[in-house]
């Protein structure tokens, strides 16, 4: 009975987001003047006592500043989530124990690729998923002088979709 009360239609959820500021809040924050006004407020709110989101009785032991990684600041990253182990059905890697496969997958590299097809105006975009070759795991991937061979496991086709409120 309680779960039936909690379920919302898409329309109700959208209305609730808008009431709480959802899209309109983002529109307001994108305005330069609004952003400038919010800067002093953000410094003031930072001086307030920190409160845990779900347990008001918890107190912080240490508060650390959140700073970007300035060495990697200019790099571009993509977050990828897999439904299953990407190497599970790969010929060379399917024989490995799952913990060994995890070791290879933790060193995987995804590379954006573009291939021209029949329509030069619309090239095919895909991500190549590669992992170290089976006998390369012992090599140091952070050593610039060490060459590591990678095996092409599969490619993922992608397209950028822009979502809006």
Automatic annotation (TrEMBL):
Lineage: Eukaryota, Viridiplantae, Streptophyta, Embryophyta, Tracheophyta
PANTHER family: RNA POLYMERASE II-ASSOCIATED FACTOR 1 HOMOLOG
Subcellular location: Nucleus
Gene name per UniProt: LOC105116013
Protein name: RNA polymerase II-associated factor 1 homolog
Main location: nucleus
Keyword DNA repair: no
Keyword Nucleus applies: yes
GO BP field: transcription elongation by RNA polymerase II
Alphabetized Pfam families for the sequence: Paf1
TM region(s), chain numbering: none
Record keywords: Nucleus
GO (cellular component) term, any one: Cdc73/Paf1 complex
GO MF assignments: chromatin binding; RNA polymerase II complex binding
Recorded family membership: Belongs to the PAF1 family.
